[in-house]
Amino acid sequence: MRNILSIYLAAGIVWGIILGFAAAFLAGGATAGLFWVFVFGDNVWPSWVRNLVYIIYGAVGLAVFIGCVSLSWIYARRAIHENFDRKKEVIKGAGLLLPGILIVFGYFVYDSHMTQLYSLHNKDRQDGYEKLIRQASPEILPKESDTEYYCRVIRKQSKFEIFYHGQLIKIVPEVLLSNGKLLFAVVGPYDSIKTLANEIVLRAEVSEVIASDFIALPERTRCGMKMFFIRSNSTYLPYSLENIEKLLCTIPSLGVSFPMKIRNDM
Fold it and tell me: Which letter, b or e, does each residue of 203-214 get, where b requires 16 or more Cβ atoms within 10 Å of its Cβ?
């Protein structure tokens, strides 16, 4: 007979939780709706109204829960005292218990799934917001490297094209001064860019060399499919570049020179 009592009590608890939450939600929502329609509307609500809604929410939920447990207890005791068919009562109790367990389990699965979707949505929204900020801001952002800044702000400019060792190379004609080093982007095959970095020269004027010791950054440090970076290998500069707006880029093997803007935002 204890099996009958245990099964019906378990069913009462499970259904008490389910129906208690449902009734509490409906009662609390109805109370808030009445206050909104007939009393406060879109005006500021006093704090006691919110407390009242919470009290109604808890009281209704608790009352329904206690009612379900009490009914299951009363029915189970009656079945025991009046010698109902034990097998039938166990089956009936299990028939009440299992759907409730499935509903509770389904709710937790659904809640977990929606929580993950909400987290992903928030992450996408935050990423989109940060992207808009990055696109809108011409200034260096926190934790942004010089190459990331170059990719975001500078790289979209028109490029100077040359044929170097049989390969088309495009050079972004703007140099970024970062931590005492000069940085600019080049589009083309990485091997050709590495060779180009060994001979490129930047001058303040035709005769004054600013930097001639350059290296191509590792292939993984790139901006787009074929845009790589060349950086001066030394922080030594013959004089300050603060008042200089342009440098002259020279490629001796081609006899080519072209102006490059200088940006000092880092």
Answer: bbeeeeebbbeb
